TrEMBL record:
Pfam families: NnrU (PF07298). Residues 4-227 form the NnrU domain. One of its GO terms (molecular function) is 9,15,9'-tri-cis-zeta-carotene isomerase activity. It comes from the Bacteria. The keyword Transmembrane helix applies. This is NnrUfamily protein. The chain crosses the membrane at residues 6-23, 35-53, 73-92, 118-136, 142-161, 202-224. It is found in: Membrane. Keywords: Membrane, Transmembrane, Transmembrane helix. GO terms for cellular component: membrane. It is a multi-pass membrane protein. Its main location: membrane. PANTHER family: 15-CIS-ZETA-CAROTENE ISOMERASE, CHLOROPLASTIC (PTHR35988).
Amino acid sequence: MLQLWAAAAFFLGIHLVIAGSGARGRIVATIGERAWLALFSLASIAGISWLAYSFNEAVAGPNHLYWVPPLWALHLSPLVILVATFFVVVGITTPNPTAVGADALADKPDTVKGMLRITRHPFLWGAAIWALWHILVNGDKASIIFFGTFALLAILGTFSIDDKKRKRMGESWTAFAARTSNLPFAAIFAGRNQLKLGELGWWRILAALIVFGALFYAHLWLFGVSPVPGFHPY
Protein backbone atom coordinates (compact mmCIF):
# COMPACT_ATOMS: atom_id res chain seq x y z
CA MET A 1 0.00 0.00 0.00
CA LEU A 2 2.94 2.31 0.67
CA GLN A 3 4.04 2.00 -2.96
CA LEU A 4 0.54 3.00 -4.10
CA TRP A 5 0.69 6.10 -1.90
CA ALA A 6 4.09 6.95 -3.41
CA ALA A 7 2.83 6.47 -6.97
CA ALA A 8 -0.20 8.65 -6.23
CA ALA A 9 2.01 11.37 -4.76
CA PHE A 10 4.30 11.26 -7.80
CA PHE A 11 1.43 11.46 -10.29
CA LEU A 12 -0.28 14.31 -8.46
CA GLY A 13 3.04 16.06 -7.93
CA ILE A 14 4.07 16.23 -11.58
CA HIS A 15 0.65 17.59 -12.54
CA LEU A 16 -0.25 19.94 -9.69
CA VAL A 17 3.11 20.93 -8.21
CA ILE A 18 5.21 21.08 -11.37
CA ALA A 19 2.89 21.50 -14.38
CA GLY A 20 0.36 23.49 -12.38
CA SER A 21 2.78 26.01 -10.90
CA GLY A 22 5.46 28.49 -11.86
CA ALA A 23 7.93 25.63 -12.09
CA ARG A 24 6.54 24.78 -15.51
CA GLY A 25 7.44 28.21 -16.88
CA ARG A 26 10.98 28.00 -15.55
CA ILE A 27 11.49 24.56 -17.07
CA VAL A 28 10.07 25.65 -20.43
CA ALA A 29 12.36 28.70 -20.42
CA THR A 30 15.31 26.36 -19.96
CA ILE A 31 14.55 23.43 -22.30
CA GLY A 32 11.81 24.77 -24.61
CA GLU A 33 8.11 23.99 -25.04
CA ARG A 34 8.50 20.86 -27.18
CA ALA A 35 11.07 19.29 -24.90
CA TRP A 36 8.87 20.06 -21.91
CA LEU A 37 5.82 18.44 -23.52
CA ALA A 38 7.84 15.35 -24.42
CA LEU A 39 9.33 15.10 -20.94
CA PHE A 40 6.00 15.68 -19.22
CA SER A 41 4.28 13.11 -21.44
CA LEU A 42 6.89 10.49 -20.56
CA ALA A 43 6.60 11.31 -16.87
CA SER A 44 2.80 11.04 -17.07
CA ILE A 45 2.97 7.65 -18.79
CA ALA A 46 5.45 6.46 -16.19
CA GLY A 47 3.21 7.78 -13.42
CA ILE A 48 0.10 6.03 -14.74
CA SER A 49 2.03 2.79 -15.23
CA TRP A 50 3.39 2.97 -11.69
CA LEU A 51 -0.07 3.70 -10.33
CA ALA A 52 -1.60 0.75 -12.16
CA TYR A 53 1.14 -1.64 -11.05
CA SER A 54 0.98 -0.43 -7.46
CA PHE A 55 -2.80 -0.70 -7.43
CA ASN A 56 -2.71 -4.32 -8.58
CA GLU A 57 -0.10 -5.09 -5.93
CA ALA A 58 -2.17 -3.38 -3.24
CA VAL A 59 -5.36 -5.21 -4.21
CA ALA A 60 -3.52 -8.53 -4.01
CA GLY A 61 -2.33 -7.81 -0.46
CA PRO A 62 -4.02 -6.63 2.76
CA ASN A 63 -6.68 -4.20 1.58
CA HIS A 64 -9.26 -2.87 4.03
CA LEU A 65 -12.88 -2.72 2.85
CA TYR A 66 -14.55 0.42 4.20
CA TRP A 67 -18.02 -0.31 2.85
CA VAL A 68 -19.86 -2.94 0.84
CA PRO A 69 -20.74 -1.47 -2.56
CA PRO A 70 -24.52 -0.92 -2.73
CA LEU A 71 -26.28 -3.19 -5.21
CA TRP A 72 -28.19 -0.27 -6.76
CA ALA A 73 -24.90 1.46 -7.57
CA LEU A 74 -23.50 -1.65 -9.22
CA HIS A 75 -26.53 -1.91 -11.51
CA LEU A 76 -26.49 1.83 -12.23
CA SER A 77 -22.82 1.75 -13.24
CA PRO A 78 -23.37 1.35 -17.01
CA LEU A 79 -25.47 4.53 -17.18
CA VAL A 80 -23.05 6.59 -15.09
CA ILE A 81 -19.99 5.39 -17.00
CA LEU A 82 -21.82 6.03 -20.29
CA VAL A 83 -22.21 9.66 -19.20
CA ALA A 84 -18.53 9.79 -18.25
CA THR A 85 -17.52 8.28 -21.60
CA PHE A 86 -19.75 10.78 -23.39
CA PHE A 87 -18.03 13.69 -21.65
CA VAL A 88 -14.57 12.29 -22.41
CA VAL A 89 -15.05 11.33 -26.07
CA VAL A 90 -17.18 14.29 -27.12
CA GLY A 91 -14.90 16.53 -25.08
CA ILE A 92 -11.61 15.52 -26.67
CA THR A 93 -13.08 15.73 -30.17
CA THR A 94 -14.51 19.23 -29.67
CA PRO A 95 -12.19 22.21 -30.36
CA ASN A 96 -11.59 23.83 -26.99
CA PRO A 97 -9.53 26.87 -25.88
CA THR A 98 -8.67 25.04 -22.66
CA ALA A 99 -6.58 22.54 -24.62
CA VAL A 100 -2.81 22.87 -24.94
CA GLY A 101 -1.90 25.35 -27.68
CA ALA A 102 -5.52 26.26 -28.43
CA ASP A 103 -5.70 29.73 -26.88
CA ALA A 104 -6.62 31.38 -30.20
CA LEU A 105 -9.92 29.48 -30.33
CA ALA A 106 -11.29 31.71 -27.58
CA ASP A 107 -11.45 34.64 -30.00
CA LYS A 108 -13.58 32.79 -32.57
CA PRO A 109 -17.28 33.70 -32.25
CA ASP A 110 -18.50 30.15 -32.95
CA THR A 111 -16.21 28.34 -30.52
CA VAL A 112 -18.72 28.10 -27.67
CA LYS A 113 -21.05 25.44 -29.02
CA GLY A 114 -21.91 21.82 -28.45
CA MET A 115 -20.18 20.35 -25.43
CA LEU A 116 -18.63 23.69 -24.46
CA ARG A 117 -22.12 24.96 -23.67
CA ILE A 118 -22.25 22.29 -20.96
CA THR A 119 -18.73 22.71 -19.55
CA ARG A 120 -15.39 24.07 -20.73
CA HIS A 121 -13.66 21.05 -19.14
CA PRO A 122 -15.58 18.04 -20.49
CA PHE A 123 -12.67 15.59 -20.46
CA LEU A 124 -11.71 16.34 -16.87
CA TRP A 125 -15.30 16.13 -15.62
CA GLY A 126 -15.75 12.85 -17.46
CA ALA A 127 -12.63 11.54 -15.74
CA ALA A 128 -13.91 12.81 -12.38
CA ILE A 129 -17.28 11.07 -12.80
CA TRP A 130 -15.53 7.83 -13.79
CA ALA A 131 -13.14 7.96 -10.84
CA LEU A 132 -15.66 8.96 -8.18
CA TRP A 133 -18.11 6.29 -9.27
CA HIS A 134 -15.40 3.63 -9.14
CA ILE A 135 -14.68 4.65 -5.56
CA LEU A 136 -18.36 4.16 -4.68
CA VAL A 137 -18.67 0.73 -6.31
CA ASN A 138 -15.44 -0.62 -4.81
CA GLY A 139 -15.15 0.74 -1.28
CA ASP A 140 -11.69 -0.61 -0.50
CA LYS A 141 -8.60 1.33 0.54
CA ALA A 142 -6.60 0.64 -2.62
CA SER A 143 -9.46 1.81 -4.85
CA ILE A 144 -9.96 4.97 -2.81
CA ILE A 145 -6.28 5.86 -3.24
CA PHE A 146 -6.09 4.85 -6.91
CA PHE A 147 -9.33 6.33 -8.21
CA GLY A 148 -9.17 9.17 -5.71
CA THR A 149 -5.90 10.26 -7.30
CA PHE A 150 -7.60 10.66 -10.68
CA ALA A 151 -10.67 12.32 -9.19
CA LEU A 152 -8.59 14.82 -7.26
CA LEU A 153 -6.39 15.59 -10.26
CA ALA A 154 -9.36 16.01 -12.59
CA ILE A 155 -11.30 18.36 -10.33
CA LEU A 156 -8.33 20.45 -9.21
CA GLY A 157 -7.10 20.43 -12.80
CA THR A 158 -10.13 22.39 -13.96
CA PHE A 159 -9.27 25.23 -11.58
CA SER A 160 -5.56 25.05 -12.40
CA ILE A 161 -6.20 25.33 -16.14
CA ASP A 162 -8.63 28.21 -15.62
CA ASP A 163 -6.04 30.07 -13.58
CA LYS A 164 -3.23 29.55 -16.11
CA LYS A 165 -5.42 30.48 -19.08
CA ARG A 166 -6.72 33.59 -17.33
CA LYS A 167 -3.21 34.84 -16.60
CA ARG A 168 -1.96 34.12 -20.11
CA MET A 169 -4.97 35.09 -22.24
CA GLY A 170 -6.39 38.08 -20.37
CA GLU A 171 -9.55 39.53 -21.90
CA SER A 172 -9.91 36.70 -24.40
CA TRP A 173 -10.22 34.24 -21.54
CA THR A 174 -12.55 36.51 -19.57
CA ALA A 175 -14.97 36.70 -22.50
CA PHE A 176 -14.79 32.95 -23.11
CA ALA A 177 -15.26 32.10 -19.43
CA ALA A 178 -18.28 34.41 -19.21
CA ARG A 179 -20.10 32.31 -21.82
CA THR A 180 -19.11 28.94 -20.37
CA SER A 181 -18.79 27.26 -16.99
CA ASN A 182 -16.40 24.98 -15.18
CA LEU A 183 -19.14 23.01 -13.39
CA PRO A 184 -21.28 21.13 -15.95
CA PHE A 185 -24.54 22.90 -16.86
CA ALA A 186 -23.83 25.85 -14.53
CA ALA A 187 -23.77 28.42 -17.37
CA ILE A 188 -27.01 26.99 -18.76
CA PHE A 189 -28.79 27.08 -15.40
CA ALA A 190 -27.50 30.63 -14.84
CA GLY A 191 -28.95 31.77 -18.17
CA ARG A 192 -25.54 32.54 -19.70
CA ASN A 193 -25.92 29.80 -22.32
CA GLN A 194 -28.39 27.36 -23.84
CA LEU A 195 -28.31 23.60 -24.30
CA LYS A 196 -28.26 22.72 -28.00
CA LEU A 197 -27.85 18.97 -28.41
CA GLY A 198 -27.80 19.25 -32.19
CA GLU A 199 -24.41 20.96 -32.01
CA LEU A 200 -22.73 17.98 -30.34
CA GLY A 201 -22.27 16.18 -33.66
CA TRP A 202 -23.78 12.78 -34.41
CA TRP A 203 -20.39 11.24 -35.13
CA ARG A 204 -19.10 12.28 -31.70
CA ILE A 205 -22.11 10.69 -30.01
CA LEU A 206 -21.63 7.54 -32.11
CA ALA A 207 -17.94 7.44 -31.23
CA ALA A 208 -18.79 7.72 -27.52
CA LEU A 209 -21.27 4.84 -27.81
CA ILE A 210 -18.71 2.67 -29.61
CA VAL A 211 -16.01 3.39 -27.02
CA PHE A 212 -18.43 2.70 -24.18
CA GLY A 213 -19.63 -0.54 -25.78
CA ALA A 214 -16.09 -1.77 -26.33
CA LEU A 215 -15.03 -0.97 -22.76
CA PHE A 216 -18.20 -2.50 -21.31
CA TYR A 217 -17.74 -5.73 -23.24
CA ALA A 218 -13.99 -5.97 -22.60
CA HIS A 219 -14.06 -4.86 -18.95
CA LEU A 220 -14.00 -8.42 -17.59
CA TRP A 221 -11.15 -9.40 -19.90
CA LEU A 222 -9.12 -6.24 -19.29
CA PHE A 223 -9.58 -5.85 -15.54
CA GLY A 224 -10.87 -9.20 -14.31
CA VAL A 225 -14.10 -7.67 -12.99
CA SER A 226 -17.55 -7.72 -14.58
CA PRO A 227 -18.94 -4.18 -15.15
CA VAL A 228 -22.32 -5.26 -13.70
CA PRO A 229 -23.35 -8.23 -11.55
CA GLY A 230 -24.05 -11.34 -13.60
CA PHE A 231 -22.61 -10.07 -16.89
CA HIS A 232 -20.22 -12.72 -18.22
CA PRO A 233 -20.18 -12.54 -22.04
CA TYR A 234 -17.23 -14.94 -22.44
